[in-house]
Every structure is written in structure tokens, then in C-alpha cells.
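ok here's the first one, seq then C-alpha cells
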Amino acid sequence: MKFTTYLKEQQKLIWFLLAIIAAFAGILYLYDTSLKAVIYPSLLCTCILIIYAVVDYAGKKAHILKLQDTFSGVTDSFPESRTAEEAAYQEYIANLMQQQKEQTMRQEMHYQDMVNYYTTWAHQIKTPISAMRLKLENEDSTLSRQLNSDLLRTQQYVDMVMVYLRLDAPANDYVFKSCSIDDMIKKSISTFASEFISRGLALRYQPIDGTIITDEKWFCFMLEQLLSNALKYTRKGSISIYREGSDCLCIADTGIGIAPEDMPRIFQKGYTGFNGRTNKHASGLGLYLCKRICDGLSIPISAESQPGKGTIIRLQLNQYQLKAE
């Protein structure tokens, strides 16, 4: 609260007191009182008024700071009210804050119930998926390979559900440590090995040396999403994983590409663009989840694409420095 603001709020009272001082000075002057006898009490009253204003301003400023601390959650109770009107406002605001706390608790309970339900569902759905994979293990045919590919995508969608729920959880389960880039890439590639073979797509990859400080589980999930996207929109040609410069990891494909008008929005939640409208099964969540995970891991992600020529996703890995605590 600025002093000028305080003066504007108190201007009626100030003008009233100045008018009283002027009235008394005028009365004294009309009774043939000497000029010094008029000026001295007038100046004295004015000084008292200034001192009162400064002291009152300091008190009100401290009072407002306490109120601001209350509203920001620093304290749980209001400072003592100075007027009946302020007391009424404080009571009303206290009721609103209590309602907000209760609503927040209900939302957290609802969110936790939902997470518990989908966690149970995800674990239960893995049982029939694993059973179907076992039944297809000893069979090698076009149909079995197609079914294995469909099961893989089903498993991915289950994982996407869990990741989507955990993104906005009050606490995340990031575990940062030094991880081999090559090991994480190979682990992600192995997930899609059968799909590369069945579709006759070439994988171009040379081992990449080096380590980064990251969460292996989240990083691998993000890589798998990018590879899944590349496979989804690449009908022929190849998918390449390579290092660009010293710190940039690239995932490139020779797929259908992305329209220029869609590029600014590909990482937005639920945005499918022209390709998504063509592919009715697109959810618009894959790249959104990748962007959210990259934000959590502090990895800048960007895309470059030309329709009919393919897409390149770039991950900047140069920000990691291991520090002793």
C-alpha cells in the first residue's frame, strides 16, 4: 500500500480536519488575535495531523500485509478486525476459504480413487495380454505377427493411461540417475522389433556413447512414444535414430510428414491435425505426453517436418550436469 493511495483513501477526513483548523484560525483572527497566535496553533494542529497520518498509515500497511499473508496461505487466521464491516468481510472470506479446503479435499479423494481404480485396471488387463502373447509365442504366421503387433499397441495404450494420470499427481516418482543413452535407446527399440520386421521397415541406428542424468523409466516411455508415432505414420522407408552435433538426439522417419499449419500445435493436448483426422484412431495424446515428460525431465523437444518426406524430432540433452549434494 503506497502512501499516496492512503492519502486518496483518507482525503475526506484530511480535508475535514484542515477545514476545522482553518475555521478556528479564522475565528481567532476575527477576534483581533495576533497573527503569531493564529499561525502557531494552526501549524501545531497541522503537525499533529501529519504525525497521525504517518502513524495510521504504518499501522494500516502492517494490517494489510497480515491480510495478504492470510490470503496467500502463510497464516491460518485473520488479524484482529478494526471495524464491524471488516469483521463481516473476514467472516465471509473465512467461510469461502473453508469451503475451498473442503472442495480441494474432495477433489483429491476423487482423484486418488480414480488413480487407484485405473491402477488396478491396468494390472488386471496385463494378465489377459500376457496370456495372449504366450499363446502366440509358438506360432509364426502373418496373423500371429499382426496379433502381436496389436497386443503391443494395446499395452502401450494401457501405459499411456497410467502416465496420463501420474502427470498431474501431487508427487511424481522421478528417480534421477546417470543412465546410458545407448542402453535406453536399445531397450526402446527392442519393444518394436517385431513390428519393424513384419512391416519391412529399416531401422538405421549406430550406438551412441555417453550418459545423461535422467529418469530411465520416463525417458524410455517418451522414446517409445516417439518411435510408435514414427511407425504409425511411416508406411515404407526407414526410421533413423542418430546424434546431431554433440548434444542433440534425433528420431527421424520417412513417413507422411506433418502439414505446416499443424506444426505449431502438435504438442498440444488432444490436437490431431490433418493426419489425425485422416487416421480416425488418433487420440492427440502421444506427442502431448512426450512434451509433458520432456518438461519434467528438463529436455527441450522440437519437431521439423515436410509433408510426404518425413519428420524429425529433436531432443536436446546438453543441460544435464551431475552435481554433488
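and now the second one, same deal
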Amino acid sequence: MKKLLVVVDYQNDFVVGALGFEGADQLEPGILSEVETVLEQGGFVLFTRDTHPQTYLETREGKHLPIEHCIAETKGHALFGRLHRYEENPVPHVSVIDKPTFGSPDIAEKARELCGGEPDQIALCGLVTDICVIANAIILHSHFPLAEVSVIESLVGSGNEENAGASLRILQGMGIEVRG
């Protein structure tokens, strides 16, 4: 059984930076515990990092969300808190992927590469529920139709709880489990 945990964009700019919101920092202990548990069980962990160039405001996304954030190689781009160690000191079964927009066009390929084939179980956590988490959950669900895909509700967050709740309901409607 190949288990994959995807930690979506748990980066400084989404927690305490340009797009940070109240309570985002409180997810860190739970996400860290989940990462450690998956690795102890022989599973795999894939971190995504929202990654933008200095010219972000000129991009399509930048025109719709005109707040500079997660500019490559800045403090805001780095994984938050104790999770930062996974990008600083690579360990077996862990990988980091930079993505240029909400959903990663390379996430399925990277998941296959990391797991040595198709994952059987995929769980997602991180930020932001109603933007990047939902986008990547749908991509993974589409690429791995035989995998059990879930979102860990207690380990995702958004500054817009109404949209976050709607996003989780949409995912449930698609057959993606929303669990504790």
C-alpha cells in the first residue's frame, strides 16, 4: 500500500506573510505530526510550494490577485516553521515541488516518481482550502482514479470559511473523502 501525503503551500506568506490569516499558524503542529506519522509508516510526503517570479503582478494570476506573495527565493516562499527543515535537508520519501499557479501541472508525475508508481492512498492538507487545496485534490483525483483521495479537514485552512466549506462539499460530491 503506497500512501502519499500532500502538504499544499504551507508557506510563510500564507501563514504569517502577505496572504496570512488568523489561525493558519495553529495548523503547524498537526501537519508536522501527520508528516512524521506518514514517514514512520513508510509512506511518502510531497510538499507543494506556490512559486512566483519577481514579475508576478504582470501574470494572469497577479492581475486577479494583485498581492505579491511566494516570490521565489524569498522568506515568504519558504515552508513555514518546523516544516522548513524538509526543504533545507532532503530526506528519503520526501519531495518538494514548486508550482506556478493554484494547481500544479506536474503534481501527478511527481507523485508517481516519489512513490515509485501509482499511490493507493492520497491525503491532502495545507493552505488554502478553497484555492490550492481544492485545485490539487481535483488534479490528483483525476490522475489516480483507483486511489483513495482524502482531505484532512482539521489540517486545512482559509481566510474565507464560507468558501472553504463550499469547497469541501464540492470535493465530497466528487467522491473525495473529507475526514477529521
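notes on #2: The mean pLDDT is 97. The first strand starts at residue 3 and ends at 8.
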